[in-house]
Amino acid sequence: MKNFCYIACLFFAFQMMVAHTIHVGNPYPLKNIRKAIAQSKDGDTIIVHKGLYREGNIVINKKIVFWGQGYPVLDARKKGEVLSIKADSVVVKGFKIINSGFAALDDPCGIKVYNRSFVRILNNKLDNNFFGIYLQNCNNCEVKGNIIISHGTEEQLIGNGIHCWKSNNLQIIANTISGHRDGIYFEFVANSVIWRNISTKNIRYGLHFMFSNDDSYITNLFKNNGAGVAVMFSKSVKMINNTFEENWGDSAYGLLLKEIADGYIFNNKFIKNTSGIYMEGTSRMKVEKNDFISNGWGMKIQASCMENEILNNNFLKNTFDISTNGSLVLNTFNSNYWDKYEGYDLNKDGVGDVPYHPLSLFAVLTEKNTSTMLLYRSFMITLLDKSEKVLPSITPDNFVDKTPLMKSLPL
Amino acid sequence: MKKSALIFLISIVLVSCISGEPKPIQLNTDSCDFCKMTIANGKFGAELITQKGRYYKFDDVACMIHFAKSNTVVPYKAFFVGDYLQENTLLPVEKCYFLKGGSINSPMHGNAVAFASDKEAAQYQSKLNAKLLTWKELYSSY
Prior knowledge:
- Chain A is mainly β.
- In chain A, 9% of the residues lie in helices and 35% in strands.
- Chain A has a domain at 60-339: Single-stranded right-handed beta-helix, Pectin lyase-like (Pectate Lyase C-like).
- Chain B has one domain (23-141).
- The N and C termini of chain B lie far apart (54 Å).
- The A-B interface holds A 104, 154-157, 181, 203-205, 211, 226-227, 230, 232, 250-251, 256, 258, 278, 280 and B 26-31, 35-38, 40-43, 87, 109.
């Protein structure tokens, strides 16, 4: 009874009510979380102590702080949802949440928030859930420092790590996600930020945007996902300082851009992907100061893209720097560093005196007929490529960087 | 004898190329031929075969219909859609009962699903709060 008031008074003094702290688990008499929630009032804190709690679905329907100490385990034993949040301003912190159901029709989750605001989900460990954390129609919520792991396989249906739907002003920070369908999935989410997450080994995409405008993702690592990262049907998405690494496969792209506009891609690293960036139906994007290193294709820019500006990037050790499927060029290339550039710089201003045509003849040929790849690095192809460089006939001659840099940019 | 066996074999191979049977969708490996997304959920998947025997796979019925409408040059032989109640099973569209709208949430917002029988469709119609449609109605609704 003594230690009730101390923290509570400080914390909720402004609420003009006496908030309580309820302890659950050893050594306290109360062992049942559901009972604790039933006893609690808005503003209370429930501290759950270390242990295994197999209570099925736990619903939080009051404004409480739900705090696990020593990572108490909430196990749903493969039946339904583990934790459902149906109140505003709930804090869930420090739990280990395992074994949600695996059903295809009703999408069971580790933690699901229903139509709420100001919910914070902090430092939890989620293991073997169908969906990890699901925010449905939420505002001003924070998902921070969670470790979300599942064990999906290629043939199996599985949910997303962090799934956000129809929400606003979310902060997704410092989570580690692997083994889900999409690591982080945004659908109809606006004005939100994704920062410092690590999304690896997910079955489909590390990060997936659909119909989500005015969002940013900054300083994330996307590595070894089934098909990289996809940003689709969205406007004004800012992509800054991310690393896209080792996304290999026929339909795998470091970054897939489809039907998007007015975005900004700045200071990212694309390393060892089949295609660094694949663009289709993309317009008014600025691609600035990125590193494209050791990719099969640095950028694949389809003819449906227009008014994109590609400047000050490094293209290093890619098989093909640029590829396209048409002859129409509506994008501009300025002041990039291309390691395949063989021009000279007589006036020593750091800018090559001869314009560079980044689109090689062979890139055009393989785009039209993939099996020509067999002839890659053969003598004839090298010869053809050289002659095409001098006198462009098949490749569009306005596909050009007029101010190629002599030295790579220190990025 | 040998010759006829060979002809028989070849004809089998050739016929099997354009048999009109759907090819199963490889989940998380195949990508949609319209929207480029990797197909992850067979329940919403779709597939079409052209007269020449070429297969196109889609992650959403809407993608297939948009694809079919955008291309007037190649004639189509058959359309298939994923069964909502089975794991990654394709059904011919003529035999399907479709539900559209309500709480159905498909990858590309076609928001339509298919059922093998009218009983199943009726059962889910109230549950999903969706509209019952035939293939023709669905095709013209996008």
